[in-house]
Every structure is written in C-alpha cells, then in structure tokens.
C-alpha cells in the first residue's frame, strides 16, 4: 500500500484483487475446508470486516435477489450460499445421516435479536455456562434440507429490521448480522455424536462516527457499533500476543466479543475476510483495516471437536425440559390459568418405565 509518506507492506494468507470471481474467493479462502471441519464437529467462524461499501455483504451473500422470480446469478453467489451447497452435498453422501439447522441473529444497539422469529424483534438474553460458553437464550433454529429453502429463509431477512430507507446508503454502519449453521452427525449409540457450527458474521462498517455523518439516534447507533468494533479490536490485539504475555481478555466488553469469544481465543477455527476499497480517498480506512487484519492473523487457537455423548445429550434435553416447564408454570400463573385436574390410571400387568426416553425407543 502506497501512503503519502511511506509504503506499508502487509502479509496475509491469501490476497484477491478486484477481478477475482466469487468461486475463486470461495476456493482460495479455505471456505470449503471450514465446512468440512464443521461437519467433523469443530466450531468454525468466518467474519467480514471493513468500511461501508467495501464488499463485506457481497462477499458473504452475493447480490441480493430482486425477488423469488429473479434470483441472483449462480456465479455471483457468496461464501454463505456456496457453503450451504457443499454441506447439503455432504449430507446426501453421508452414510450415517447429517442433520442441518440454521439460526439468524442481529446485534443492534447492543441488543441481540432473532431475525427468524415472527413478529416484531425483541432482545434475547445472552447467557454463559461452563459447558457452552456464551450463548443466546431462546434462539430460534430451523432445520433445512435444500439450498432453496435456506436461501429464501435467510434472504427474506437480509435487510435488517432496524434499517431505515431514508439512510439506506448507510446500512453497513447500522447493523451486524450472524448466521450459524449447525451440522450434526449421529453415530452409533456407543459413540458420541459430532456437532459443529459454521458461523457467518457480517460486521458493520468500521469507519468512525464523524465520517458517517450520523446525528441524533443514528449517532447513538453508530457509537454503539464503534464501541463493539473497538472491543473486538482490543481483544484481537491481546490475543495476538504470545500466550505467556497475555493478560485478561475482556470478552464481556460487548455482545459482539462475547458471541465471538470461542471463535477468537478458544477452541474454534476462524477465517477473517478483510475488505478494502481501491479509492485513494479511503486510504486511511484501508490502512486501518489492514492493520486490524494483520493483528488478527497472529491470533492462534487450539481447535477441539465438539463430541456429544448419548448421556450428555439426554442430560441436556432433560435440563431444557425443566426450564420449559418452569417457564410454562410462570406463564400459567401470570395468566391466572387453573391447572387441569389429572388422574393416574394403572394398567394391571404393566411394569413402570423408569428414566425412559421416548426419542430413543
């Protein structure tokens, strides 16, 4: 990069010029390998970073379809759709079966919203547990078996609900979205199942508030975004240091860093796509993005596959049932609904089944 005072040199795993096709980016970035790791039970994340208009959303999703009757050309599909296709192809050839599910989140003004849930968006709580790390409570997840189904489902919410048509040219500054695919490979009862994740994160524009021209409510939104990206940058800077020299990593400084904690410094595998503009007017932001990516490249993780034993799965399901029962009881009390009287019927000659789980026969 040629700057006014000196030339800056950066080294990355792969560099694509403006003429690179979507297929070349998919194959050259290692995206196919990430999908295979997710099937093997690893937590994988790819996130796009850069200023507004640099091509983050296009790289991940390609151009948005005008309508169902006018889909985007196959050659223009982004990393997400191509990954969907590869996972679906794997599911058809997997002898033990491969179940695929997806979730879709938005972080807006430090609130986590579920974009798949019907009705107006509402904030979901972000929890932490020793076994799961940070996770979104009550997040909706949907199963899918075809590329058309998952693409239609995600693209119908591709424009965030917080998006204002009056400032449409600033949409990259306004929001950040995360799409997570969960491949699960069942195994024989004696072996643990493999459950991985493949998470796509479309970060908001990295430019400073004064450069967005935002004011009032929009300025508040832009400030929240800048705080999130600064928190992410701080975590990356600390993680880039040798393990012996690292201090506490402040993942809790923002919702974004909490959700990316496992991907950045835990047991996950992460791909960062740094998007820059060729315009000389954007030189300052270009250098900022490249420095950001250069620090991220020095971060190392210790990937571990996620194996779920039958006993652990049953325990998790039982815990979820207990939580749902408590929520149901609370709602009934709030609505002042009387409990329906029940009677127990004993069938002679039928021994009781203790601890039986109908899902396993």
From TrEMBL:
<feature type="domain" description="Kinesin motor">
    <location>
        <begin position="1"/>
        <end position="299"/>
    </location>
</feature>
<dbReference type="InterPro" id="IPR027417">
    <property type="entry name" value="P-loop_NTPase"/>
</dbReference>
<dbReference type="GO" id="GO:0007018">
    <property type="term" value="P:microtubule-based movement"/>
</dbReference>
<dbReference type="InterPro" id="IPR027640">
    <property type="entry name" value="Kinesin-like_fam"/>
</dbReference>
<dbReference type="GO" id="GO:0051231">
    <property type="term" value="P:spindle elongation"/>
</dbReference>
<keyword id="KW-0067">ATP-binding</keyword>
<dbReference type="GO" id="GO:0007052">
    <property type="term" value="P:mitotic spindle organization"/>
</dbReference>
<feature type="binding site">
    <location>
        <begin position="50"/>
        <end position="57"/>
    </location>
    <ligand>
        <name>ATP</name>
    </ligand>
</feature>
<dbReference type="GO" id="GO:0008017">
    <property type="term" value="F:microtubule binding"/>
</dbReference>
<dbReference type="InterPro" id="IPR036961">
    <property type="entry name" value="Kinesin_motor_dom_sf"/>
</dbReference>
<comment type="similarity">
    <text>Belongs to the TRAFAC class myosin-kinesin ATPase superfamily. Kinesin family.</text>
</comment>
<feature type="coiled-coil region">
    <location>
        <begin position="307"/>
        <end position="334"/>
    </location>
</feature>
<keyword id="KW-0175">Coiled coil</keyword>
<dbReference type="GO" id="GO:0005874">
    <property type="term" value="C:microtubule"/>
</dbReference>
<dbReference type="GO" id="GO:0005875">
    <property type="term" value="C:microtubule associated complex"/>
</dbReference>
<dbReference type="GO" id="GO:0005524">
    <property type="term" value="F:ATP binding"/>
</dbReference>
<keyword id="KW-0206">Cytoskeleton</keyword>
<dbReference type="Pfam" id="PF00225">
    <property type="entry name" value="Kinesin"/>
</dbReference>
<keyword id="KW-0493">Microtubule</keyword>
<keyword id="KW-0505">Motor protein</keyword>
<dbReference type="InterPro" id="IPR001752">
    <property type="entry name" value="Kinesin_motor_dom"/>
</dbReference>
<protein>
    <recommendedName>
        <fullName>Kinesin-like protein</fullName>
    </recommendedName>
</protein>
<dbReference type="GO" id="GO:0003777">
    <property type="term" value="F:microtubule motor activity"/>
</dbReference>
<dbReference type="InterPro" id="IPR019821">
    <property type="entry name" value="Kinesin_motor_CS"/>
</dbReference>
<keyword id="KW-0963">Cytoplasm</keyword>
<keyword id="KW-0547">Nucleotide-binding</keyword>
């Amino acid at each position: 990069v040629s700057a006014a005072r000196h030339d800056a040199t950066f080294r990355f795993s792969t560099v694509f010029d403006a003429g690179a096709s979507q297929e070349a980016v998919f194959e050259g970035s290692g995206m196919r390998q990430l999908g295979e790791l997710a099937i093997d039970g690893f937590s994988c994340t790819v996130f796009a970073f850069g200023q507004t208009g640099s091509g983050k959303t296009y790289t991940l999703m390609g151009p948005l379809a005008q309508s169902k009757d006018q889909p985007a050309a196959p050659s223009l599909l982004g990393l997400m759709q191509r990954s969907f296709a590869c996972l679906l192809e794997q599911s058809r050839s997997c002898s033990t079966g491969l179940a695929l599910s997806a979730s879709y989140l938005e972080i807006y003004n430090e609130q986590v919203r579920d974009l798949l849930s019907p009705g107006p968006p509402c904030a979901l709580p972000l929890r932490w547990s020793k076994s799961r790390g940070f996770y979104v409570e009550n997040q909706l997840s949907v199963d899918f078996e075809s590329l058309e189904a998952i693409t239609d489902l995600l693209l119908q919410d591709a424009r965030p609900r917080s998006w204002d048509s009056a400032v449409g040219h600033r949409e990259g500054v306004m929001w950040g979205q995360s799409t997570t695919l969960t491949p699960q490979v069942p195994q024989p009862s004696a072996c643990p199942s493999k459950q991985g994740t493949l998470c796509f994160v479309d970060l908001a524009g990295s430019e400073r508030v004064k450069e967005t021209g935002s004011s009032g409510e929009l300025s508040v939104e832009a400030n929240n975004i800048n705080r999130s990206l600064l928190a992410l940058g701080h975590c990356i800077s600390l993680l880039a240091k040798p393990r012996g020299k690292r201090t506490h990593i402040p993942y809790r400084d923002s919702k974004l860093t909490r959700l990316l904690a496992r991907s950045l410094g835990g047991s996950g595998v992460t791909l960062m796509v740094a998007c820059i503009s060729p315009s000389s007017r954007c030189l300052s932001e270009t250098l900022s993005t490249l420095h950001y990516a250069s620090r991220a490249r020095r971060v190392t993780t210790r990937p571990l596959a996620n194996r779920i034993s039958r006993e652990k799965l049953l325990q998790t399901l039982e815990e979820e049932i207990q939580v749902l029962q408590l929520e149901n009881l609370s709602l009934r009390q709030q609505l002042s609904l009387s409990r329906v009287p029940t009677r127990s019927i004993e069938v002679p000659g039928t021994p009781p089944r203790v601890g039986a789980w109908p899902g396993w026969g």
